[in-house]
């Protein structure tokens, strides 16, 4: 990038909020994929006007712009694969409004998700989307990837709680979508179009969220099973018995062993899987749902159930669940982390397939995740420095994806496509669907400057890569 362009970027955001230092560039070059691509400059705007000015400059000089929140993504969505400008949203971090009476929140994209949840909770309100990284991931990143989390089984994902957006387009024009009202069908639903678009259609600068009343009571249960098949089959049985948990998480034995020290009690040697289940609502409703759950499990001899009796015990259970992903690195230095989704009744088939795949290829494959909505995290453990393991890992990944499609599933429930899944998109999307999506991309971004190299199958510039 030419020096005069970098100077113009600095003039827009202020010299103290623009950097080309190699050390700083490295800090904005990676995400959860383990891949690294250096940007040429990083800017830290603090208002929509600055973002718009940066996009007008990028449009005039045709350089890439990649919006970035916390960089916690798992598919390379925020990686500057073609260099250019990283637009860091860390200064766009204000909660602009919490309207208690109308149950609405308005935030900037750099607001930390967990912090927003805590603020609305003070007013007796609830923002349900709760990705595992909620303590550091941002609302803008959640919107860009349509993040989910354990609460999705009852409440839905990010797209179900965003009702309006302010977006800066590639041209620098400012677009508003949606409303502050629960209903609104004036024109096309552009809000849903931008959610999950991974920064390829525009830069989100404001988010209007739906809020709901905070549930008054919650009961937490840990269900242990001596049969992996029984545990996964139980997921559909629970939901079909008119039990509506707010979370229903699944962990296989390998995952449990990794976090056993964090559990209130380590799992017995014969336990093959556990379900972490929560029910919320009024005390009466939780009591009635609990009775249904206990009645169902009384006919399932291979399962035992234990209720968390204190908030400390509940927090310990969730600490263990949220610690699984980072704990997997105790087994291998690297992993392929996928977030596939299948119909709930096909979860046993998926888990059985991964067990056979692991045995066949001689790899460790861990399964855990949001069983209540069929979103299973499949972690293929390997050492990328060993050519044979790397080759087997890629074979396992492709076979996993093909099996998921065969089971009427989808390749991603909440991580997005980015660069790591783009080559597999034709497995799920037909030619017409891909063509229409590319046409939308070209309409909003005719010069291809917004987060280029993402979602659609294409070659990534090797010259931009520091480490793959």
Care to describe what's here?
The chain has 468 residues and is of the alpha+beta class. It folds into 4 domains: 3-90, Uridine Diphospho-n-acetylenolpyruvylglucosamine Reductase, domain 2 (2-Layer Sandwich); 95-213, Uridine Diphospho-n-acetylenolpyruvylglucosamine Reductase, domain 3, CATH 3.30.465; 217-325, Alpha-Beta Plaits; 331-424, Alpha-Beta Plaits, CATH 3.30.70.2740. Helices cover 34% and strands 22% of the residues. It contains 16 helices and 20 strands. The chain has helices at residues 3-13, 22-27, 48-61, 113-121, 139-145, 152-155, 190-194, 228-240, 253-258, 283-297, 311-322, 324-327, 347-361, 387-406, 425-428, 431-444, and strands at 18-19, 36-37, 41-43, 65-68, 85-88, 95-99, 104-107, 125-126, 162-168, 174-178, 203-210, 212-213, 217-225, 247-252, 273-281, 303-307, 334-341, 364-370, 375-382, 465-467. Strands 16-13-15-14-18-19-17 form a 7-stranded antiparallel sheet, with helices on both faces. The longest helix has 20 residues, at 387-406. It is globular. Residues 459-468 have low confidence and may be disordered.
């Amino acid at each position: 990038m030419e020096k005069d362009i970098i100077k113009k970027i600095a003039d827009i955001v202020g010299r103290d909020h623009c950097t080309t230092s190699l050390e700083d560039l490295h800090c904005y070059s990676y995400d959860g994929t383990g891949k690294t691509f250096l940007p040429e400059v990083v800017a830290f705007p603090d208002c929509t006007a600055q973002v718009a000015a940066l996009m007008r400059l990028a449009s005039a000089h045709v350089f890439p712009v990649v919006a970035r929140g916390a960089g916690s993504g798992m598919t390379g969505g925020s990686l500057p694969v073609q260099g250019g400008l990283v637009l860091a949203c860390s200064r766009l971090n204000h909660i602009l409004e919490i309207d208690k009476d109308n149950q609405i929140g308005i935030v900037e994209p750099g607001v930390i998700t967990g912090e927003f949840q805590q603020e609305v909770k003070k007013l007796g309100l609830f923002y349900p989307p709760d990705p595992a990284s909620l303590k550091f991931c941002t609302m803008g990143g959640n919107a860009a990837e349509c993040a989910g989390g354990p609460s999705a089984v009852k409440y839905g994902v990010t797209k179900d709680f965003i009702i309006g957006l302010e977006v800066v387009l590639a041209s620098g024009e400012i677009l508003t979508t949606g409303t502050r009202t629960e209903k609104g069908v004036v024109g096309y639903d552009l809000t849903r179009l931008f959610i999950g678009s991974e920064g390829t259609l525009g830069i989100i600068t404001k988010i209007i969220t739906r809020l709901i009343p905070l549930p008054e009571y919650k009961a937490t249960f840990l269900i242990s099973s001596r049969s992996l098949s029984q545990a996964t089959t139980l997921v559909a049985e629970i939901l079909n018995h008119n039990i509506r948990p707010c979370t229903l998480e699944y962990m296989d034995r390998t995952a449990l062993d990794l976090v056993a020290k964090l559990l209130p009690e380590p799992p017995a040697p014969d336990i093959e899987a556990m379900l972490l289940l929560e029910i919320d609502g009024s005390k009466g409703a939780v009591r009635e749902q609990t009775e249904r759950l206990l009645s169902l499990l009384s006919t399932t001899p291979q399962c035992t159930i234990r209720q968390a009796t204190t908030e400390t015990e509940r927090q310990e259970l969730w600490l263990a669940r949220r610690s699984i992903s980072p704990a997997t690195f105790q087994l291998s230095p690297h992993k392929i982390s996928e977030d596939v989704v299948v119909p709930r009744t096909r979860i046993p088939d998926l888990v059985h397939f991964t067990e056979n795949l692991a045995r066949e290829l001689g790899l460790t494959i861990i399964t855990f995740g949001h069983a209540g909505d069929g979103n299973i995290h499949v972690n293929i453990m390997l050492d990328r420095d060993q050519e044979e393991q790397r080759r087997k890992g890629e074979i396992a990944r492709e076979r996993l994806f093909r099996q998921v499609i065969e089971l009427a599933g989808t390749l991603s429930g909440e991580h997005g496509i980015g660069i790591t899944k783009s080559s597999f998109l034709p497995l799920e999307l037909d030619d017409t669907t891909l063509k229409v999506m590319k046409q939308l991309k070209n309409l909003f971004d005719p010069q291809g400057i917004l987060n280029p190299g993402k979602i659609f199958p294409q070659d990534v510039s090797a010259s931009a890569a520091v480490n793959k």
